[in-house]
Please model this.
Amino acid sequence: MPLIIFFIIFQILYLKFPSSELIKLSLGISMTAVGMILFLYGVYNGFFAVGLEMGYFFGSFEQTWIVIPVGILLGFLATFAEPAVRVLCYQIEKSSSGYIRANLMLYTLSIAVAVFVGIAMTKLVYDIPFLYIVIPAYMLSILLMWISDKDYVAIAFDSGGVATGPMAVTFLMSMAVGVASSLGGRDPVIDGFGMIALIALAPIIFVMLLGVYVKYIGLRNNE
Model:
């Protein structure tokens, strides 16, 4: 609603689109609003409950390590299905005139989140303090900013934002809370949260690592 009000003000004062364009815009806004409402409602009432129950189920296994490969698989699939990730990958390919392929970015982000969800599950299973993971990860990301190809640095930080979309937040975080709740002697608030911070860090590190690889290959080719 604030965006619609903002648009109406600019339409009256500056834009002055013809009525045919306004009809198309109204139709598009209506379809987008209905789609987003249904999508978010479905994610909250579907994926959130499923993720929580899956966390309870796998966390109750005697071999609790099983949640690590399960988390890796679900981390890959959730990111691969994230709409915002696909939009970003398409924009990157378009803006770079095809130099950075959308599929390359999609698989890089999906693998990155899969790896870090696996790390988050390892933290849960073996009770590793969160600071022991997040501080070295941030230090690594700062270091990579200096040695990565500059074209990939800004892309990396934007990728961290889109990876933490509704699929990852509702499905993976709820699963982590479920796992923490099923493990004896764990606090779901302390141990179940923090995964989204790791998911946000994953694309930053992996995309800049890709930038380091591209920069190294480019220097070697120039030689």
